[in-house]
Amino acid sequence: MINVKHFCEKLGLEELSNTSCKEMDINVTDINRPGMQFTGFYEYFAHERPQVIGKVEMTYLESLDPDKRMSVLEKYMSYPLPCIIVCWGMTPPRELISLANERGIPVFQSKLQTTQLTFQTTTYLNRELAPHVTRHGVLVDVYGVGVLLTGESGVGKSELALELVRRGHQLCADDVVDICRVADDWLLGESPAMVRHFMEIRGIGIIDIRAMYGVGAVALDKSIDMVIHMENWNANKEYDRLGLQEEYTDILGVKVPYQVMPVRPGRNLAVIVEVAARNHSLKRMGYSAAHELDRRLNALIAQNSGMDE
Fold first, then answer.
1. In a domain, 297, yes or no
2. 3-class SS at 50?
3. How does pLDDT run across 156-194, given as a tens digit for each residue?
4. Are 180 and 192 in contact (CB under 8 A)?
5. Within a domain: 298
6. Same-domain check for residues 194 and 112
7. pLDDT digits 0-9 by tens, 44-57
């Protein structure tokens, strides 16, 4: 279900109908242009989608005599349409508004061109209808890489994020991260509106990062490109020292690169996260330092073996 008020605010729409409808039953992210339906073709009619009327459809409707236009619209609006959006700031025929009020179909007007409105509507619906989950952690933008810091409470996630902000990076969310899957391989994280830009630092309390460091120190949302799990150093645990094997964690069905970062006094965690972000960017470009070293070692072993023979 899509909230009508939020829909209008985000897309800059003006409601022309008088339906008092507060929510629309929209479950798909595509739109439909009803040109074929106006001519009488109703096979494969995607009536469950938002209906967008552009100049072509409007010109055709205006070319019809009033009785024919009423007949076309009655047939068209007999289906359970979630809403109708008229582009280019055009005024729809009075028959359309009358039938919409009668049948409870919201009608909106947009100043945008049809292509622009289509793009913005599908983008909005992709975001609103995407699967969501809430995770405990801190999301920061480090050199353009979205890093989700996880770990037990008190391990130092917020303090690390604060140091990263001080070094010029951006905070997206602290403590609570709302995550949505906007594509099959793309996760987007943001902070709940109530606590956006705020951070809790033990011993100090709540601080406002935007007020303290400026608007450039915060981001409204950020893709989640890697997860760094912070845990207290365990001397009996064997930590990865080469990085030859990639580890992943699953979030909403998306595999995200995952690394464990042991925490103990004396380690410069902010620098380590910066290096991890840069290294991740290199891997996305096809270069892995660990695999390059492994290749050199194998080449050297092969060379020495050849000399022994």
1. no
2. coil
3. 999 999 999 999 999 999 999 999 998 888 999 999 999
4. no
5. no
6. no
7. 999 999 999 999 99
Looking at the fold, whether 167 and 230 belong to one and the same domain comes out as yes
Residues recognised as catalytic: 136, 157, 175, 241
Tell me which DSSP letter residue 10 carries. Answer: H
- Which residues face 249 on adjacent strands? 256
pLDDT band at 110 (very low <50, low <70, confident <90, very high): very high
Contacts of 248 (CB under 8 A, 6+ apart): 255, 256, 257, 258
The predicted pLDDT at position 279 comes to 93
Report the distance separating Cα 274 and Cα 2, nearest Å: 39
In this structure, are residues 45 and 39 in contact, taking their beta carbons and an 8 Å threshold? no
CB 171 within 8 A of CB 197: yes
Domain encompassing residue 137: 132-292
Last residue of some domain: 62, 96, 128? 128
Q: Are residues 94 and 163 in the same domain?
A: no
Measured CA to CA, the distance from residue 294 to residue 280 in angstroms comes to: 18
Judged by DSSP in three states, 81 sits in: coil
Are the beta carbons of 184 and 255 closer than 8 angstroms?
no
Say what the pTM is. 0.78
DSSP 3-state of 170: strand
Residues 6+ apart with CB under 8 A from 171: 138, 139, 140, 141, 161, 164, 165, 197, 199, 209, 217, 218, 219
Going by the DSSP 8-state scheme, the letter that residue 220 receives in this structure is S
